[in-house]
Amino acid sequence: MFSIEPCGDSAFILRDLDRPAWEVADALNELNLPGLFEAVPAYETVGVYVDPADFKFDFSGWKPVARIGKMPMPRIHLIPVCYELGPDYEMASTQLELSAFELQKLHEGATYTCYALGFTPGFPYLGYLDERIEGLPRLTQPRLKVPKGAIGITGRQTAIYPSQSPGGWNLIGITPLEIVGEDFFPIKTGDKIKFYSISEPEYHKMKGERLEEN
């Protein structure tokens, strides 16, 4: 069903999964196993962090499908984006040989899956971009300060910077919404994300609102 790759003496990676990585990670975390700190999903693998002295689990007989049964329907988050405020909006469209409007429509026309959370708290790795806007490399010189709410693309991925941080993705827009905070963390792995465009006046009117928890 999957393969196990050691990663030091207190972690390992589950590969060759037969179902989405976030489902396997959720199923493993639900078991509350002694010595298991956390199972963390990526796009196609799960990192498992353990206390080797306490963690004893026979994966050979484990069937996560049977354990968790039918998964609930994924939550869908609708996120407004002001594309014209994206610092790399025009440059990215030129590199892709598209108009800025075509880039916008292709980006907001897809429904994305949150495959992983990381880098900074609440940073969602979303896939996959329409093939017509795939392939942009990261910036040759990353920014020291990416603005909070910036929407980035690189390779086949898009993402939202939940807070000001360094970053090297191409920034094609900004959302006015707060997507993470001390007391709320609405986007989970497996959730679906839909972007929709707003004007700059709408951006300023909505700035600081929280993304609703569905």
Q: Would you write up a description of this structure?
A:
The protein has 214 residues and is an alpha+beta fold. It has 5 helices and 13 strands. It is 18% helix and 30% strand. Helix 3 crosses helix 4. The chain is elongated and about 55 Å long.
Topology:
Layout: E1 3-6, E2 11-15, H1 21-30, E3 36-41, E4 46-50, H2 64-68, E5 76-81, H3 89-95, H4 100-108, E6 111-117, E7 124-127, E8 143-146, E9 150-154, E10 157-160, E11 165-167, E12 170-174, E13 192-197, H5 200-206
Parallel strand pairs: 5-13
Antiparallel strand pairs: 1-2, 2-4, 3-4, 6-7, 6-13, 7-10, 8-11, 9-10, 9-12
Large-scale geometry: elongated
Count of DSSP strands: 13
How much beta, percentage-wise?
25-35%
Number of helices: 5
Mean pLDDT: 92
Strand order of the largest sheet: 5-13-6-7-10-9-12
Task: Describe the largest sheet.
Answer: 7 strands, mixed
What is the terminal-to-terminal distance? 32 Å
Instruction: Write down the Rg.
Output: 19 Å
**Sheet/helix structural class:** alpha+beta
Instruction: Write down the secondary-structure element order.
Output: EEHEEHEHHEEEEEEEEH
Proportion in helices: 10-25%
Which residues sit in consecutive blocks of at least 5 with pLDDT less than 50? none
